[in-house]
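Lecture notes, unit on protein representations.

Consider one protein chain, 288 amino acids long.
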Amino acid sequence: MYTSKWITRSRPKIDRIACPWLIKRFIDADAEIIYVPYEEVLTRAEELNAIPFDLPGVEYSHYEDRCTFDYFLKKHNLKDVALHRIAAIVRGADTDRFDFAPQAAGLSALFLGLSQNITNDHELLALGMKIYDGLYTWARDLHQQKHIQTPAEHLLLEVYRKYLKENKTKKAPEWATELKELIQDQLDTKMSFSLQQASDELEINPSYLSREFSKYFENMSFGDYVRKLRIEKAMQLMDTTAYSLTEIAYLTGFSDQSHFNRIFKKQTGETPSAYKKSTLKSKKHPNS
């Protein structure tokens, strides 16, 4: 019987543990997983007739805003709802987008710590297999179960949450003010700033920051708020400069023109080209 071979970069943390688990549990139970240094992956893949994954330029890799785990699900047509629930967690952990799933920050912290404690890649994979088995059971059977179960505890939580919602005069914490300035400074210079960078700068736990962010930033997630600022910057550039839309997309940190167009229309209700035409028209006819 043919056993598939899969090869990727050494020193795995998130995606390169999750994908082998997915392969061995749902694609080929006898698959061989091979870890080698980055620069050797493609050469060794050809020598060993192995399929490379989680590497730029190969089929099994990140695509759009999704990670390699997502591509495996798509490629092998895996419809299991529990796997897609895990995919959001893996994606969030692997891309520092903890707004994708509340469990993503914990998964990231767990494997970052384990990767420092365990230097043998296959030993780490063996432990990771057990961890993902547990995560799968949770995602399949227990994801709706809460740690707090008793009626008295629910009542206390309800009172607590109601108090928080009604406390309209509560002053924003100092970190929120600092973060607003920090985001603006970063976007003014390079239009690229992640939640992980913000948590590092402020020395605040990223999962806490992700959870609390929307309370002080227009009821938006970190990602949505940053995208809003990028679009506002793009509109300013359209109003005040002669840059092309492609140049503006680049200057405001979008990976490509289509991504810029999509986010701009979602934020404003019209395409960048339509907005630019209406801006030019209003300049030509200021009294109209």
